[in-house]
Design brief:
binds fe (ii) ion, four-stranded mixed beta sheet, alpha+beta
Length: 432
């Protein structure tokens, strides 16, 4: 069990700084709690290029605060090791040279214990920075601290999806946590929720935190559309498989079919067939597929092919956001501790279900800049803007997302062949 610093960091700070410092330590402690039952060996494996070792996540999130918050604002700060900047910079060209992403698993040193010492060192520097006796410019510090917290929450989700992949390729299929399965209830057939569309506003309005890529808020025109009231279930994916879904090129985009052939896809990621039964790897170990649970770990290509097979299409991100506006941000997030996409509750009242949590929902919108968008100056301007090519937008958060991290305007993005995140599909169709 790792030791988390329990000292009250808010005592020496005051007002908004104290509240922010408490949030900082809550987020940092939650990161460490995700590793609490793991071994040192579990922290260092990199099972594919997209996966980073847990130790790297622990260090990189610390480097983010060190580089963008502490070093520029605390003159007395001294790094634990100047070489950590090379090892734990991810993609910030402005911040200097960096180690190769695909070789993060080679970094057996510093040790896990040394990385935890690095975390404590930077945490103490943040305490000092926000101490009421320290003459810091809070107007400069708070926005960076805020983005650092959201950044760390993004990495918390990646830690879960990455350790899931790491364990899934281990023939022993270890469980990350213990949770006994409770059979999902039948969510019933899809109901179509119609929306008149029209001239609508999407994007963040500037009240509260949002990433730069969520704005500016702007108008879009939506033709009348309908959204499925819930995402696609495992049972529906089995029907797709049994109807030859993975063998029929007419259902797939050209690049998708090339991926099917090259990777020999014949079922969703983490699924396997044993004695005529479908099973999948979950963070609680191998489980028989529950037909009523929401399908997860689908690529964009699979989501698109399923939609075509079902006589529907994927929603656009503007349709999704317009439909979600006004709905409570509630669902199966990481806070529930299930770490698995559950089934939709039976329909009550006939509205949209599971818009938030369980699975990120693929949209058919290419991830690109909103009208009027420009990336901020400097290294933090690299956070989102430079990835606006060859990726698709996903909405709504997943069972690995923190409830305090998600909102209606949130734009996640992944390449169309990515499957290791908790990604699913909600159908849409044109009406009128
Ligand atoms: Fe990062």
């Amino acid at each position: 069990m790792l030791v988390v610093d329990k000292s009250d960091p808010g005592v020496a700070a005051a007002g908004p700084a104290a509240a922010m410092l408490r949030r900082f330590h809550d987020v940092r402690s939650f990161t460490e709690s995700l590793c609490a039952d793991l071994t040192v060996e579990d922290h260092v494996v990199q099972s594919m290029a997209d996966v980073s070792p847990l130790k790297w996540h622990l260090a990189h999130t610390t480097w983010f605060f060190e580089t963008f918050l502490v070093a520029p604002n605390l003159p007395s700060y001294r790094p634990v090791d100047p070489q950590y900047a090379f090892l734990f910079n991810s993609y910030y060209v402005h911040a200097g040279e960096r180690h190769c992403r695909a070789q993060r698993g080679y970094i057996s040193r510093p040790t896990v214990a040394e990385v935890h010492a690095y975390r404590r060192h930077v945490d103490e520097a943040v305490n000092t920075l926000l101490d009421r006796g320290h003459d810091a410019d809070l107007s400069a510090i708070m926005p960076v601290l805020e983005i650092g917290l959201h950044h760390e929450q993004q990495h918390q989700e990646l830690m879960l999806t990455d350790i899931k992949h790491v364990f899934s390729v281990n023939p022993l299929r270890p469980a990350y946590h213990r949770e006994s399965h409770v059979a999902a209830r039948d969510p019933g057939p899809v109901r179509w929720i119609e929306n008149n569309g029209g001239l609508v506003d999407i994007g963040h309005n500037g009240n509260g935190f949002a990433y730069d890529n969520e704005g500016p808020r702007h108008r879009v025109w939506l033709e009348p559309f309908a959204l499925a009231d819930r995402p696609v279930t495992n049972g529906e994916m089995i029907a797709f498989i049994e109807d030859g879904g993975y063998r029929r090129p007419e259902l797939w985009l050209s690049m998708g079919w090339a991926a099917v052939e090259e990777n020999e896809w014949s079922e969703p990621f983490y699924w396997e067939r044993r004695d005529g039964m479908w099973w999948s790897y979950t963070l609680a170990g191998m489980r028989a597929i529950d037909r009523h649970e929401t399908a997860a770990h689908l690529t964009y290509f699979e989501a698109d092919a399923y939609a075509r097979w079902a006589g529907a299409r994927l929603p656009t991100e503007a349709e999704w956001e317009h439909a979600a506006a006004g709905l409570p941000v509630a669902g199966n997030f990481v806070d529930s501790g299930h770490l698995h996409a559950m089934g939709a509750s039976p329909s009550v009242g006939g509205g949209l279900r599971q818009m938030y949590g369980d699975v990120w929902e693929w949209t058919r919108s290419q991830y690109s800049a909103y009208p009027g968008y420009s990336a901020p100056e400097g290294a933090l301007g690299e956070y989102n803007g430079k990835f606006m090519c060859n990726q698709f937008v996903l909405r709504g958060g997943s069972c690995a997302t923190s409830a305090s991290h998600i909102r209606a305007t949130y734009r996640n993005f992944f390449p169309p062949d990515a499957a290791w995140q908790f990604t699913g599909v909600r159908l849409a169709r044109d009406i009128g």
